[in-house]
Design brief:
Distance between the termini: 39 Å
Largest sheet: 5 strands, parallel
Strand order of the largest sheet: 2-1-3-4-5
Bound molecules: adenosine-5'-triphosphate, magnesium ion
Helix content: 40-55%
Number of helices: 20
Length: about 475
């Protein structure tokens, strides 16, 4: 996003000696510069030369700067050139009017050349940023069918590793902090290497120890109390496709031994069964804790670790590939527009700069939630710095990442105590309502239920508006 030195600038000013000195200076800086002496000539020049930036004097005989701006706005809307007004000292009224008409910046005369240079440079940076946003929104950047986004060298290494998995069924261990995109990488591996087979995931952390094995291998009728029919396991379901063992670190040692056998022999028996089955797909394991250190502590089998770790992919935390933030933000703007029918068209550079200062403890998942929350409340279709005030401790009593952390913890608690689905439904409805500031129409849409259904749930769960 660097300034374009060969950009086109139009200077509109009735004082020709001022215009000439600006022109000479800006040309020496590498820009192409046109000059007009009033609004009428200015409009003609815009049509003929399509400048990127206009430096527009306010007080001119004939058509003045405000009138020219008005006309441009009317004719070209948002696609009008970026305009920097040149105002006389104290011309506040005109300045306010010009802002409302979409002027980008003001310079008060007399203008030192260095100040002019900086204003123009900033202007071009802004243009190049908006162009990049438009470019991404038009879907021109879509590695992996527009799922995984990122151009940082760490991400490119991951794409290369995925590419190298074509034509083999090697086991892959994906590690990385929570929310970095491990499951997304697993899906990309699947889509790239065995798109015709099924993709099946087991969340090992969500299963009680005594169920994990039967979940993996299936069971036969009579294997244990309640097993009144034969049942397929996830290995059967994944067949020649991909099986993702999510959160592998929490599996019991006894289960790890069985898994090792599957990896070594590609064979398994359903619980209670004696007929061997074979697995021809790929196993991917993921972990958000360092498995090697669990091995060192005796909590994870070393032989299994090496079996899983044939190919190792480390997904970096967002703070370590923050250069991808712009791409990711725009990607999520598009995603939210599609999924939630919001209509975000752009984001200001100030907003992106602000988001770059956040530490993103919840990584890309947190970013997705932050963009979603801002998009739901967007005004005038543009996300601004203020759209993200909820991230700023000065504006609220806790960032979204905090409340998300609580949310995740609560979810963790819910799973460990195995509560009824209703309890999770209640929590989720509460979360969506608070994210939309209790906009019931939007909440119902996000939840995929009708307004009356949402109202019924609010009543049933005794949910109370506290925003
Ligand atoms: N590089 C990326 N490009 C686009 N979206 C991404 C990327 N990485 C992650 N996401 C999105 O962020 C969210 C979290 O990703 P994912 O579930 O893959 O993370 P995870 O590492 O498996 O997290 P956890 O450890 O909590 O299970 C998903 O909605 C995913 O679509
Ligand atoms: Mg995951």
């Amino acid at each position: 996003m660097s300034a374009r030195k060969n950009g086109k600038i139009l200077i509109v000013d009735d004082n020709s000696s001022i215009s000439r000195s600006y022109q000479k200076y800006l040309e020496s800086e590498g820009y192409t510069v046109f000059v007009a002496s009033d609004g009428v000539e200015g409009i003609n020049m815009v049509e003929k030369e399509s400048p990127d930036i206009i430096l527009l004097d306010i007080n001119m005989p004939g058509k003045n700067g405000i009138e020219m701006l008005e006309e441009l706005r009317q004719n070209m809307g948002r696609s009008m050139p970026l305009t920097i007004m040149l105002t006389a000292y104290g011309d506040l009224e005109a300045a306010v009017k010009a802002t409302n008409l979409g002027a980008y910046d003001f310079l008060t005369k007399p203008i030192p050349l260095e100040k002019l240079r900086l204003a123009v440079k900033r202007g071009f940076e802004k243009i190049s940023f908006s162009e990049q946003v438009a470019y991404i929104l038009e879907d021109k950047i879509s590695p992996f069918k527009n799922t995984i986004v990122g151009r940082d060298s760490s991400m490119i290494e991951i794409y290369k590793t995925i590419g190298a998995l074509q034509g083999n069924k090697a086991t892959v261990l994906i590690s990385g902090e929570s929310g970095t995109g491990k499951e997304m990488v697993a899906r990309a591996i699947h889509d790239t290497t065995s798109p015709d087979g099924p993709f099946i995931a087991i969340n090992c952390a969500a299963l009680p120890e005594n169920l994990i094995e039967s979940e993996l291998t299936g069971y036969v009728k009579g294997a244990f109390t309640g097993a009144d029919t034969d049942r397929e396991g996830k290995l059967d379901a994944a067949k020649n496709g991909t099986l993702l063992l999510d959160e592998i670190s929490v599996t019991p040692l006894e289960f790890q031994a069985k898994l090792l056998r599957v990896l070594q022999e590609k064979e398994y028996f359903p619980v209670g069964g004696s007929k061997k089955r074979t697995f021809e797909g790929r196993i991917i394991a993921s972990t958000n804790v360092n498995l090697k250190s669990l091995v060192d502590q005796g909590k994870f089998r070393e032989d299994l670790f090496y079996r899983l770790n044939v190919i190792n992919i480390e997904v970096p935390p967002l703070r370590e590939h923050i250069s991808d933030l712009d791409l990711l933000i725009v990607h999520f703007m598009k995603k939210v527009n599609t999924n939630m029918k919001t209509n975000v068209e752009s984001i200001t550079k100030e907003a992106v700069d602000f988001l770059k200062t956040h530490s993103w403890p919840g990584n890309i998942r947190e970013l997705e939630n932050v963009v979603t929350k801002a998009a739901i409340n967007v005004k005038d279709r543009i996300l601004t710095r203020d759209s993200f005030n909820f991230l700023d401790p000065e504006y609220s009593n806790g960032s979204l990442s905090d409340c998300q952390a609580n949310e995740t913890e609560n979810m963790g608690d819910l799973f460990s105590s195995l509560v009824p689905l209703k309890e999770i439904e209640k929590k989720y409805i509460e979360f969506v309502l608070s994210s939309t500031k209790w906009h019931k129409g939007k909440s119902a849409e996000i939840l995929g239920v009708t307004r009356p259904t949402l109202d019924k749930r609010i009543e049933e769960f005794k949910l109370i508006k506290n925003v």
